[in-house]
Amino acid sequence: MAVGRKKGCEKTGGRKPGSENKATKELKEFIVQLCQDNKEDVSEAFQNLEDKDKVKYYMDMMQFVVPKVQAIQLDMKDAERAFFVTKPLHDLDVPIDNSSGQDTGADGS
């Protein structure tokens, strides 16, 4: 059985946090160079595609330029809190102290 580090001991070895993986960096540089060297050929091939294939290609390429939007989950308690916080007070039927000259409710009385 392997023995791990004791709790509280600092991490030793390995890449530093945030440092770039050398293989990934080299692959990215290769792909960028390949794209730059062949952009005219790719552009010409794109022009020869049928319209439906142009749309598919365009959508496939967009994922490398435009960040994807992710769905989020919202539980009802959070939704109720968000609704309450964003709903203007004058839209709620809650009387407000009029001594400061503020509106007293939705009907303006």
What does this protein look like?
- The chain is built from four helices and no strands.
- The chain is 44% helix and 0% strand.
- The termini are far apart.
- The protein has a domain of 49 residues.
- It is mostly helical and 109 residues long.
Q: Any chance you could write out the topology, listing elements then pairs?
A:
Layout: H1 22-37, H2 39-47, H3 51-62, H4 76-86
Look at the structure and give the mean pLDDT: 76
The biggest sheet, with number of strands, parallel, antiparallel or mixed sense and barrel status, is: none
Order of helices and strands: HHHH
Helix content: 40-55%
Q: Concise description?
A:
Helices cover 44% and strands 0% of the residues.
Descriptive key words:
109 residues, mainly alpha, 0% strand
